[in-house]
Structures are given as structure tokens and as C-alpha cells.
Fold these 3 entries.
Entry 1:
Amino acid sequence: RNSHSNIINFPTFQPSNLPNLPTFQPSNLPTFQPSSLPLLLLDAYHPNLYGGTGHVADWGMAASIARRYPIMLAGSLTPENVAEAIRVVQPWGVDVSSGVERQKGKKDHEKVRALMAAVRNVNAVQGAEKAAYSYEHSA
């Protein structure tokens, strides 16, 4: 993972045959046409670490970016906080790694199952809320 920015990282996975992709500080995020930008990956920032910092991303700032662009939210997402992160930020998706590990590099299957259940639950609730809103406003 390669990430360099202030407050929120924009890390990229780098296969060895690709050049480094740009990263930006949120205050210097270029203006993109939404159709020209496939996805932004937002992560928490730590000046001495690249990705997997153990810090939660700034969800308020991520939400403001998510209103303009599709984002994948990362930053210490766990079974306990992923539903709230989805509710607040409304990301296109989430990127989870250390939040479901029992030790560095070793995934905890129960944590993965709990995280997936939390994501499914918040998606079901949001889907029901959207359907109710749509029904109320179509009548």
C-alpha cells in the first residue's frame, strides 16, 4: 500500500509493473469529473506509517468527499464500527484488514463473519429506509 497525505490517505495497491499513482491531501484534492474517476480509496493518515495505521479515518471529511465521488473507505474498520462508518460516510464500499485480525497478518474468521453481518444489517436497514422514502414520495 502506498499512501501519502494529510488527514485522509488515498492509498493504492501497487503491482510491481505499474508506476506510483498519485495521492492527495484532502485540501488539495483536484477537481475530477465524477465520470472520469472510478474510485477513491480513503484511509487514515499517520506520518510514519503507510496504510494499516490502526487509526480511524476522518468520517466527516470522508462523507463530504463521498458526496462528490465514489469512495472505498478504509481506516481501522472493525465489526464494532463498520455499520456507523457506512451510515455516516455512505461509501461505495469498505476496505478492511487489520480490524478483523487476531494478530498482525492473521485474519480472525469470527471477526470477519461479525463484520460481514454488520455490513449486511446496515445495508438492509438503509435499503428499507430508501424504499420507505421512495414509497412515501411517490404517493
Entry 2:
Amino acid sequence: MGGGEQGFRGKIGPATLITTLTSRTAFLYLQCMTVENALTLAGQGWILSSQNVTKFCAGITLYLRDPEGTCAAIQVGSWGSQAESLLASLASAGANYPNILNQLLQQIQGHYQGEPGESCVDIHQILEEAAGAPGTEGQSPSRALAVLLDHALAGSCFHVLPSPQYFVDFVFRLHGDESQNLTLSGKDLEGRASRQTRTPPKAHLGDSDSVWDTVCLSASDVLEVYGISEKEGVSPHAWAQLSPALLQQQLSGACLVDVHFPAQGDLSVTEKYLYSSLATLIICLASLFGLVIVFCASCKNVSHYVIQAFLGMAVGSLTGDAVLHLIPKVLGQHSHGEESSEHESPEFVWRLLGALGGFYALFLLENLFNILTSRPSEDKEDNSTCNHSHGMSLQLVTDELSHQRQPQQQEGSRTDLVILPGDPWLLSPLPPELQLLPYMITLGDAIHNFADGLTVGAAFTASWKTGLATSLAVLCHEVPHELGDFGALLHAGLSVSRALLLNLVSSLTAFAGLYVALGIGSNEQSEIWILAVAIGLFLYVALCDMLPSMMNEKDKRPWLLFFLHNLGLLSGWAILLVLSLYEENITF
């Protein structure tokens, strides 16, 4: 090194160093860079020794990079912490170390004024001198900053870009043979470029051929290397000149950063927990709110038809979510990435809709056949003997509530509540072994709600749109399901308050399932498997539980019932179809 290095080898007065360095910037009017302020970094005393030179070099480098910003930091007392942060970032940079130093040189160049006639130095020379210093092993941020300040003291100019020849040398060094010539045999540059971008070469700081290998150059930098004006643009001749630089940047992978940009519809961890918890809370409250309508005796008929519409919508939303949304997602058809968005086609959605069309055709045929061939006497008989939980749920609830409102002659056992006129199969009290029935119902409901929570959690882990669709499906089937359980609890002899309490407790297990799914659903494979199981759950509940309730329901207004069932069914399918087709265009 020159005379500047001799100063750092021995001792140098801070006043001389500060006066010289401040004269190199274009901000001579700034009065913040005084000896007193500099001593806050250099330590006590007027001698800059090797023990405190590291932090001092970092602080002065910050001033050369941004004089005004450093003066502001000095005033608020944060200059020292900023210097320590710079040293820490350089020490932990790893392969990005040359990039950070190169950025520092670029920023310094905007404010720095060298001495006329002095030679120029670049990052390659600075790193080479720092790595070759005695007692220095590997990359040494403190030594590199000291070398940088030494050249600044000498008035050297800083050249922060490689020469045009470097890019050509890089390509031949990477793909040339022993004769330094490129050959077609085994030299598939396209394939090598693809692999090279995955594993960029590591730079050895003392190797003159590899200092720039991991430095990412901007478009302006590349144009400046070849002396091309940005205003004039790139001509065909200039493009031919730029080609080696563009090829080198591609082959080195220097500009590739392994950063995951969330796909459209992805949620942060906080948002996943917030939105999924809110959806689960709404599901729990809505399912209990469905019980409110049965407390109004005058609303008995209206509430009966509302529940029937919910049954239809439950079947539609459950089958629609499973077939139109979850099955494509599990099979990898619903892609949220940019690369697949150009090739994605909704054709598979229409094919799956055709499967639902076949289901609907037979549903219509059977319903019409039952309506047209049934007799009024059969309707009445069937209505009294059907013992399916959802078919009887509303009647059970309203009958039990009416029975509990009647004045009682004496307290008696709660099992007396189950002896209802018109119900031949309930003419005797529950036997002792069936007194555990309410708790068995509650346990089964708790397991069911836990599975619902797992499904909602996995859906929100995938995306908020999948979470919305799944939450809708769960909500629609929870209202009639909870109503059926409520009626069964009342039938088992529980009071209204006790039945509501057990329903509420069992619904809270949905949150346990939710947080389990969110915890393990961060793994993509776990998410897919949970959704795959959810498909089976949804199809079973829809086809083996809800659908028989619809088919077995008898009413004195069969055409109104037929209309409500179809309205709910088609509404559920329509909502899920729109979401499946246009979910990529939905933003918030």
C-alpha cells in the first residue's frame, strides 16, 4: 500500500485523518465531523490505535457514503450503533460480501472527490489487498474498510465496475477447455446456465478472476461499463456489445436471490390465525344462532322451511367444495403461481361440474317421482315414523320446548320429558343404560367439530379463498347438524340450558382442530393430506347424512319443499363454481 497504510500500521492523529477525509466530500459546509465527535468512536485519547481502528473505520465509511445522514446520526447519538451494524452486516454477508462492499463504493462515489491524477482502484483491488495483508485469513471487513480509507486518504478515485473484458473472460473461464476455446461438444450453455443459476460459483477474495463473479450489476451499471448512454437507448450494435455481460450475469446467478414471494391469495402466519379463528367463531355462533328461531312458537313453519333450505345448501356446498375445489387442489390443478397462470384452464372444472350434473339429474328424477306418486295419507304416516335426526330435528326441538313450557304438577325426573303423545317409540322412559346418551351425543359432536376445525385450518393454510369456500361448506352443514343434536339432547331429557351448554362445549373443539391444522399445515404435504381426508368427510356428511334427510322429508307442501331443496342445492354449487373459476382474479 501507499503512505496511508503506513499510518494505519503505526499511529495517526485523528485530527489529520478527519480533516483530510472531510475535504474529499462535496459537503464541506457540514460541521458535524469534528475531532470530538470522532473520538466517540475512536475511544479516549488523541491517538488512533489498532484496538479501536475497526469501529472508527466503519464510522468514517458511513460519513463518506452519506455525509448528511451521518451528521443527523451524530446529533441523535446513533452513529456508533450504525457503525457496529455496518460491521455486523459485512461479517455475516457470506458470499454476498463483495456485493455489499461494491454498493458501499457506489454510494461513496456519489459524494467523493479524489485528487486529480491519482490512479483508480476497484473492489477487486481493495479485496485483494485486504485478503493479502499479514495475519488476515479469509474476508476481513475491518481490514477492507481500512484499505478503503487508506485509498481515500491518498485521494485515489474509485472505479466500481469491471472492465468489458471481464465478462468475456468469465464465460471462457467457466466453459472453455484447456486450450481456452469454447467447443460444442458437451458445452450446452443453455443447460449449464439453468444449473448454474441454481448454484452460483463461490468467489475467492484473493482470486483476481472471481471477485466480480458474485456481484449483481444493474442495467445502468452494464450500460456504464460499455459507455452506452441510457438516454440514447441500446442499438443493435450496442446490444452485441452487451451480450457478454448479460450472459455472464445469467451464468453466474449473481442476481438470483432465493426469496419466496407469496402467491396471490397466500396469507401471513398472523393472518392465517386471525382469519381462520374468525371464521371458526362465526361457524360456532351461527350454528347456535340457528337454534334461536325454534324458540318462537309462531315461527315454527317458517323455521322448518328455513332448515330445509339449509339442508339443500349444505349438500350443495359440501359436494361443490369437495368436487369443484378440494379435489383439483389436492391433485395440483389449482395453481397459484405465476408460471402456471398462463397455462391454467378451467376445463377440468367444467368436467367435474358434469359429474355433479349427473348427480343432480338423478336427484331431480327421484324427487319428482316421489312427489308425483305419493299419496297424502302416506305423507302423514311417513312424517310420523321417519326417525332420521335431520328429518325430525325441528319437530323434536319445537315439541320438546312446548312440553317444557307447560306447568308441571311436580318436579319428577327429567326423563319424563321424553314421553310424548304421538310418538309410539317413546312411550316408556329411557332405560338406565341410555342415560349416557346425551354425553355420547356430545362426544360425537365434539369429534365432528374437531374434524371441521382441521379442515378449516388446512384450507386457510392453502389460501384465504380455499378457506372461505371450506368455511361456507362447514357453516351450511353445521346449522342443521347442530339443530339435530340439540333435538336429540332434548329428547334425552336435558333442559334447554343444559342442551345449549353441551352444544357450546362440543363446538369449542373446532378451535382445537383448527390450531392443530395450522400448526402442522405449514408443511405443504401435510396440508394436502388433510384436505384429501376432508374430501372424504365432506362427501360422507353430504351423501350419507344430509341427502337422506332431504329425500326422506315429507311435507303437506311437497312442491315448496322441492323448490327450497333445489334452491339450496343449486346455490351451494353456484357459489363454489364461481369461486373455482375466478378465484385467481379475487383480491382484497
Entry 3:
Amino acid sequence: LPPTQRRHDAIWVVVDRLTKSAHFLPIRKDYSVSRLAEIFQQEIVRLHGTPSAIVSDRDPRFASRFWKGLQKAWGTRLKFSTAFHPQIDGQSERTIQTLEDMLRSCALEWTGNWDDYICLVEFAYNNSWHASI
């Protein structure tokens, strides 16, 4: 993604495996694990409480001692998808593919920063029909 005025250059996708609802959080690739934990607490835990389990890719930030310690303090099981087998977390992979399609279809209409509109994409995604529900 192109950097925005707020210097966001990535989207953190958080998916609730039960309801299929998703949060699309604009972030910077250089955010520290403590900054990501702060965002997670403000945007996810605040709305949904602490999760019972988190399935994550093997990003070094999510494999760090700090993140593992935070999950232990919250009582959350931390699971990692295996390398070269992202289909283990297929639900998130499908959500990311849908997000990419939605962003591509909206890109021509938007002027300015994509992070100004990501909340509308999240709203549209969460209010669309999902075959697996």
C-alpha cells in the first residue's frame, strides 16, 4: 500500500472466527510489538473482550516474548500457522483476499489517503452476506 499522510503503509486484519466479523486496522510496518499490543487493546479488546485464542502468521512481532507474555496474562492461547501453509488460517486469508478486491474496486473513486476510507470498507465487509455463516 502507498504510505498515507499519517505514514500508514499496511492493514492489520483481525477476524472473529465465530461471527466472521473483521477489523481492518491501518498500521505502519515499523510499529513495535508494544504499539501493536496497544492498538489491539484499544480496538479489539475494548469492543470484544480478551479472545480465548489467536491464530497468527509467524510475524516475528507476534512470536516475541512480549506478545506471548501479554497473551499469557490475558489467558489467551496463541497459535501460529505453519510456514508455507497459510491455508491453516483460511478464514483470515479469504478475508484478506476480499479486502484486496474491495480496495481495488474503490481505489479509482478515492482521492487522498486510503486510511481515511478503510473504516467504510470494514463497514461494508461486516454488513455483507457471508456464505459460511
